[in-house]
Amino acid sequence: MISPSAIHRLLQQGQLSQKGGEAKIASDPQSPSAHLIGICGSGMQALAELLSGLGYRVTGSDLQPLSENLALLQARGLRVHQGHNRDFVPGEVDMVVYSPAVQADNPERALARELGIPQFSYSEMLGRLMADQVGVSIAGTHGKSTTTAMTASILDLAGRDPSAILGAEVLSRQSGGWSGSGNLFVVESCEYKQSFLDLSPQHAAILGIEPDHFDCYPEVEQAVDAFRQFAQKLPADGSLIVRGDCRNTMAACQDVAANVETFSLVPGMDWWAADIRRSWSGTRFRLFYKGDFFAEILLQVPGEHNVLNALAATALCAGLGLTAAEIREGLGEFRGIARRFEEIGSWRGVTLVDDYAHHPTAVAATLQAAREEFGDRRIWCAFQPHQISRTQILMQDFSESFSNADRVLITPIYAAREGTATESTDVARELSDRIARQHSQTRFCGSLDQTIATIEDEAQPGDVLITMGAGDINQVHHAFTRRLQRNHTPRRAAGAPHVFETGGTSSVLRDTEDPRRIATGHTGLSRERDVVPHLGRRLQSAHR
């Protein structure tokens, strides 16, 4: 990773300067500073954590209310402000970094222009940090965050100590970004507005290309062309791992100088999986490389979509010189990332699961994993669509993606960069009506409060509630877990493990015990385990 002193040297040489004047230099040459506008975004927060680990003095601002994770950043010495104001920019700062949602007329950006402080978008900053490193980029419509986390975790456990940036919290680290002492920089690389073209990786993966981000790619061919440009940036001695059974992906990797290898669940690819089966702790499968057995893998994360993610991570790590044993161990230890089929806990015997799925393919894959995970238990899916354009264009695909849910609740669209509140509600109602034609147990809830009230009134012990969406739908779970923290008194037999304090299944289950026996139906639940161990991570701060 490029060091703080190297950044300072580039500033002195003017290599980080932009139009508008020379950069101001921090008084301490070993402590460069950065001000992050839009720091509440998951990627920006990860960048703040990485820069802080490098020794930067980091400040930031965001319109959104400060989250618990950002409170942790503040506890580490970062100054984070709510709202945007010229006064929030420190008197001497080396650079301003802004999220894609922050426009040029932002008052803090305007001040930076006046003072000649260089400004970089989030992806431009990642590109500059990658410049002195061996870049490993993971791109594609689905699975980027998980595959990035898998890859970084495998490399870390193998002693390669990579730096990493991804748009979600790695559960084992409670962080989405960190700086390592090794020369590898593993980055989740997003195609939105072609931002991944700011990166120059030596190794990359494209996990698949589907219609998405309609505000910048009205036609899928435009997205394919962006991915083609990304693939062509790889050097001849680099490597590219691609989803071999995705037509769009294969079209994007033509005429690429780097070595290309394919992966899929379909035999005949360079990397493929066979004998995929559920185990009590996750998913087990056999992994093959060019026809030869490579390793047997046991994942702690469920679903065939995670088998695909593991294949891509394996191929990347093998290309970086890791052995089959190192990869097998790294994947086996991987616990997942936040908001990707994350079991939050339980409330009144209802298992709470949170997921980021906001595309029909991801919704269907997550609900399929849930059906495999929870069997015939009744599954509630509270879905918050993300972006009006995506919902309108993929309306039919969305309407067909909820077949594995028993109850479906649709909330108004989290519109993000577009539309009005009325339009958000009207389009969401249309989606609810379309789903209801195929799935009678579907209804529209006009707010998150109404969603919570519906679940309170109708959910039964043994049910599973999965919240889905890229917006604030996870606040539904937070409402329930806050009540648990206020009101729940754990009961246990004398000498029994403190389930509420450990946060890990190993402390409460024998190796031969199936944790899914904790709740296998609508009745007969053990009151001793009214909160499953996954909730421990969120409750730890309350116990401290």
From TrEMBL:
Does the entry feature the keyword Secreted, yes or no? Answer: no
Cite a single GO MF annotation.
Answer: UDP-N-acetylmuramate-L-alanine ligase activity
Q: Could you tell me the keywords of this UniProt record?
A: ATP-binding, Cell cycle, Cell division, Cell shape, Cell wall biogenesis/degradation, Cytoplasm, Ligase, Nucleotide-binding, Peptidoglycan synthesis
InterPro entries associated with the record: Mur-like_cat_sf (IPR036565), Mur_ligase_C (IPR004101), Mur_ligase_C_dom_sf (IPR036615), Mur_ligase_cen (IPR013221), Mur_ligase_N (IPR000713), MurCDEF_pg_biosynth (IPR050061), UDP-N-AcMur_Ala_ligase_MurC (IPR005758)
Q: Where is the Mur ligase N-terminal catalytic domain?
A: 35-132
Record's subcellular location: Cytoplasm
What is the top EC class of this enzyme, as a single word?
A: ligase
Q: What does this protein do?
A: Cell wall formation.
> What family does this chain come from, according to its entry?
Belongs to the MurCDEF family.
Protein name (record): UDP-N-acetylmuramate--L-alanine ligase
